[in-house]
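Cross-posted from the bioinformatics board.
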Amino acid sequence: MRRFLAPLAAMMLGLFATPLLARDLTVVAGGGALQDHMRATLFSTFANGPVVDTAYDYNVGPIRAMVQARNVTWDVVMVEAPDLVRGCEDGIFERIDWSVVNRDKFMPGGATTCGAGAIGWGVSVFYDEARHPTGPANFVEFWDTQRFPGRRSLRRGARMTLEIALMGDGVPAAEVYKVLATPAGQQRAFAALDRLRPNLTFWTGGQQPIELVNSGEVAYAVAFVGRVANGIRAGQRYALRWPTLLYAYDSWAVVRGSANAAAGMQLIEHITNPAPLLALTRLWPINPVNQAVADDPDVRARNPLMMTNHQAGGLEIDTEFWLEHGPDLEQRFAAWLNR
Amino acid sequence: MRRTNWLAALLIAPLLLLILGSFLVPVGLTLFRAVQDREVAQALPETSAILAAWDGQGLPPEAAFAAVARELGAALEARRIGDVAQRMNFARTGMRSTLLRTARAAERLRAPYAASLVALDARWGQAETWLLLRSAGGPVTSLYLLRAMDFTQTPDGGVVQAPTDERLYRTLFLRTFGISLLVTAICVLLAYPVAYTIARLRAPWSSIALTLVLIPFWSSVLVRTTAWFVLLQREGPVNGALLGMGLLEAPAQVIGTRIAVVLALVHVLLPFAILPMHSVMTRLDATYLRAAASLGANGMQRFLRVWLPLSLPGVLAGGAMVFLLAVGMYTAPALVGGDRDQMVAWFIANFLNRDVNWGMAAALSAYLLAMTGAIVALARILTGGMVGARG
Amino acid sequence: MREHPLARILLRGATALVLLFLLAPMVAVVVLSFSPTELMVLPPGGFSLRWYEDFLTAGRWVLATRNSFVVAIATTLLATLLGTMAAIGLQLGRFRGKAVLVTLLTLPMVTPYIVTAAAMFFAYAIIGLTGSLLGLVLAHTVVAVPFVVVAVLATLQTFDANLLRAAASLGAPPMLALLRVMVPNIWPGIAAGAVFAFATSLDEFVITLFMAGPGQFTLPRQMYASVRESLTPTILAAATLLFLCSLLFLLASEVLRLRAARKLRA
């Protein structure tokens, strides 16, 4: 028995001890090829000690549980705007130390109480010109199945889809959120979705719309522009319709109660600086929230597919709208899907 | 004897403690979470106390306006405002912006607060807002349990059905129940002849056939679901084979349909139906059958009158097992199901991980637990009745 | 009881079809994992180990494998120890309410995993075990231990209690008697329970999805994430390796079953 117990006890002690040991600074982002590039250009160039990075799927439940449990194992995390705002209100994220992070380098709105702007992302209509020489240039045409027959694909979920539905019904981008805040506007959005539904396929993972368009299952899809841009760079003949862009910014935040909070702030200062970001733009058409990098004519010229070049005509996704109407509209969307 | 019992207790205690602490108490806690209501009372204690004493007629006293302004400001400063904003916004969409606007303006607001709050946000002038705040004062609420069955509460405490275009969860439970029942029925129907045949095969064929059932039984659920995900792809092997044989003209879209979900679930759960049936059938006493034969019963009669009733406990055990596992299944619908095929587990996971609405996650879990509890109890009663009949 | 010859043919044919349905997907996965291209078609048109090479050189798959085995080994040790002790206690004890106790200890077996997962998510957040390997091991132990209890209880039915009395009459203290007399006699049951516990932990996905922190990807979790992201044959290589593990479990459990049967006859 003793022979059996000794290793067991040692193992249990080892498991207990793990969180007590000093932990390397841990940064968590969305994974994939982008994170591989961020590791090469952003994290590995941080001078003050090693950085470990892991991926998550933007689910903030575990972050809350970890803060509540006072067992914080993530330090710096890339979060979506609504999660940043709510997490800040609830004390899930530390306030950014603006004496360490230079506030002035960010684009307007890029520096908030708990978040420092990381990169922008967006979705817009794209299709394969090898299969379809022409395609919808705006959402009204996206809804026009007479002129452009074939299946369409949108993300499964209310956010972005309802805005798109209203624009497909002719609401100008500037008025989308005003209309969508009213019961009549919500009705209108779902009615528009009803019309398109026979031709609609919903996707859940970011690579799916690309695969759907590649296989010809879907003629026109709304997809993450970064993934479409990478396809184009890899030689695909995608048409990307920039006027249909919907975009938002992700931010870097420090998880509250992190033992490495101070180092985390320094890391955020480093990874939002021009030098590492410029290195990153050479590998990936990102949309930095650093004003100088976004304005850099060289970067713009080198990355014609960078969102920064095209976002003037796009619609910025309204964080506060979705915090308020999200629970209600997401449930209605799920109910609509089931009908 | 007493010493033996002490020893026995000592041996059982560690596991009992683990199960208690790591399973029974957490499950109890989850059930409690489904009715717990503490966000408002925690963030706005004084407001809650004043509203609890308020008669609910017209608007509350000035003290309530003053308290809510001060406490919302403090909650914003102490970074506790998000939970209370979400709780109230879940009860009535739009409350979030009212509460946050008030919290941000709290320092600028001056007495009389009733007037300055209404000037800031008209919602404070509506009795409904205050009734909602009062009903959220805790310590318990039926909000989540009602919502999880598509009911809502009116400010005066009445219960009404949710608007048609917001009803979701009753359909969801019915669907979960329906898919599980269908999968159970298919599994039982497929498993019975297999278990019967294997039980009556001669060695070594019986062992070989049983091993072939045990192989999928021992392999990972995720591996098997992934296998179906691969096989059913549009460019996948199943479509390829069917196209090659000329049975299909164009590749069929199976992923994302109910068929794919049922197929994957049946495949994953079938061994759980075969094995209990087989174990009951191999232990069936052949003397009964011989006795029936000597009394002149023909093959069909012997099967229907003797074999079938005696093997029913195995059928029930297998069926119950399949149903229990199907009802809580997350992986298969998430991987191969489509928009209309997600089951309760998917929504629980979403509320826990993504939406961070733990009250709804707990309420859905509570109903799912009640559903499985009923199934286990039913299976117990049925098997108990049968054992009694046999004895 | 003899069936009509036609009925027998039909039954055997149906059985063969069902067994084919059960096994064909696994065989397809194994074959496709050796595909030389990204295309997953049958027949694969070649043989290559490139996806296994990819599996073994990709950091995340290796890490997930390591995590899976660390957690599974710890779970097996803990579940086997606690489960065997409890089963022996249940067999020895002479008190009322034993049936209730057995039900309590095996309750995790009949509770939907998603409910167990949600419950543990809430509870572990309070006591600070979320995102720790210890928390994951405890969670897996809870769902694996009923199988140990059941397996050991089953072999205990065949154990001759007189042996314990004989040991006691020779002056052996109860603990020593249990260890020296009982455990050697029931070890096939214990080992079978251990195999089952290991397999349960290695397979478990839903609880891990909620409990595990970053860098604690287990094989099933990594597989799920990869399938959701983009389907590559590397996933099939991982699936084939897990499938190989399950064949080993099956082999182990069969060997143990035969040993137990032989012991019973002796």
